[in-house]
């Protein structure tokens, strides 16, 4: 959104917005963000914090509301926020459409990974792919998928999305996109809304986790992205999955999720086997060292013998002293 469009709202903290139709009242706390189709505020309604998005584009509001309603019908999916209210606000002789949704609080995707560690990357991506599979099954493509739009709530840690402005019906042109995550920008596909468009963005989010400051396109195509993967130890672990997604080889989010899960399990099994082998090798070396070094073995046995002998001598001395002391007391009594 251009600054001139943003300033049109100019809603200050403390402003009370009352819906024309439902009469619900929302007190603005602060701005959360703005984009091409509106501005989002943190607000309070009856001591409950909510996210309120307003726009002078009624069609955009209607579209996003329909998306949130569609999300609500997807059983077991927590991808987007819950829709709470839809209304109009009459102000300065005009009318501004708005809708209210659940306020999702937590660190964004990259901040969470930086804080908790890269081991969380496949965990969150597997969650995201499971939700995208349900979204795609219901005929939608998320579109503007990027780390800034992904919030991690919890515990337990759960990935959620806070902006559905780019969500598009499959088969149509993508409504909103961010260049770094857009396959059209990299020359690796069209901007037609299909599942593989979102999966390309998921692969770019994984790349972004290794390059938090991102990088600019040079020659485009797969070459530069492949090089970025090869230069990162983190991304090398997931190279087959990332490359397949970048090149549009997955037909569904479920396919990508299955491959990623298989890869993670394989590497975990390999690491476990390696640890077990190292432990067995260490034990074998210790046993071999005892069996093949009789001199050292005799020394150890002699040391154990001396310790045992010394302990018996100590006990014997204590017994003698106690008996002597007993005879002494007995003599004094006589």
Give an overview of the whole structure.
The protein has 334 residues and is α+β, with helices and mostly antiparallel strands. It folds into 2 domains: 3-102, Phosphorylase Kinase, domain 1, CATH 3.30.200.20; 109-269, Transferase(Phosphotransferase) domain 1 (Transferase(Phosphotransferase), domain 1, Orthogonal Bundle). The chain is 49% helix and 18% strand. It is built from 10 helices and 10 strands. The chain has helices at residues 3-7, 58-73, 109-116, 121-137, 195-210, 221-230, 233-236, 239-246, 253-291, 294-333, and strands spanning 16-18, 25-35, 38-45, 48-55, 83-91, 94-102, 140-141, 150-153, 158-161, 168-169. The strands form 3 sheets. The chain has a 6-stranded antiparallel β-sheet with strand order 1-2-3-4-6-5, covered by helices on one side. Strands 7-10 form a two-stranded antiparallel sheet. The chain is globular. Mean pLDDT is 84; it is low at 1-5 and 313-334.
Question: How are the SSEs placed, and which strands pair?
Answer:
Elements: H1 3-7, E1 16-18, E2 25-35, E3 38-45, E4 48-55, H2 58-73, E5 83-91, E6 94-102, H3 109-116, H4 121-137, E7 140-141, E8 150-153, E9 158-161, E10 168-169, H5 195-210, H6 221-230, H7 233-236, H8 239-246, H9 253-291, H10 294-333
Antiparallel strand pairs: 1-2, 2-3, 3-4, 4-6, 5-6, 7-10, 8-9
């Amino acid at each position: 959104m251009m600054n001139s469009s943003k300033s049109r709202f100019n809603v200050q903290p403390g402003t009370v917005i009352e819906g024309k139709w439902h009469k619900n009242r929302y007190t603005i706390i602060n701005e959360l963000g703005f984009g091409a189709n509106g501005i989002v505020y943190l607000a309070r309604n009856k001591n409950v914090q909510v996210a309120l998005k307003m726009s002078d584009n009624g069609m955009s509001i209607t579209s996003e509301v329909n998306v949130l309603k569609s999300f609500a019908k997807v059983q077991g999916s927590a991808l987007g926020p819950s829709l709470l209210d839809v209304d109009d606000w009459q102000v300065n002789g005009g009318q501004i459409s708005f809708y209210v949704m659940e306020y999702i609080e937590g660190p964004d995707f990259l901040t969470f990974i930086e804080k908790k560690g890269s081991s969380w990357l496949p965990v969150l991506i597997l969650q995201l792919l499971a939700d995208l599979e349900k979204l795609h099954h219901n005929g939608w493509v998320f579109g503007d998928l990027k780390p800034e739009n992904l919030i991690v709530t919890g515990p337990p840690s759960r990935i959620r999305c806070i902006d559905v402005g780019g969500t598009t019906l499959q088969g149509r042109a993508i409504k909103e996109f961010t260049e770094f995550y857009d396959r059209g920008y990299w020359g690796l596909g069209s901007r037609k809304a299909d599942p593989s468009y979102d999966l390309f963005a998921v692969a770019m989010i994984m790349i972004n986790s290794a390059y938090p400051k991102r990088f600019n396109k040079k020659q485009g195509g797969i070459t530069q992205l492949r090089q970025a993967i090869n230069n990162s130890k983190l991304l090398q672990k997931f190279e087959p999955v990332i490359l397949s997604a970048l090149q549009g080889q997955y037909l569904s989010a479920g396919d990508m999720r299955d491959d990623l899960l298989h890869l993670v399990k394989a590497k975990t099994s390999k690491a476990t086997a390696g640890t077990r082998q190292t432990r067995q090798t260490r034990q074998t070396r210790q046993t071999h060292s005892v069996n093949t070094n009789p001199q050292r073995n005799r020394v150890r046995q002699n040391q154990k013998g001396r310790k045992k002998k010394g302990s018996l001598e100590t006990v014997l001395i204590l017994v003698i002293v106690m008996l002597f002391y007993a005879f002494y007391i007995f003599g004094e009594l006589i």
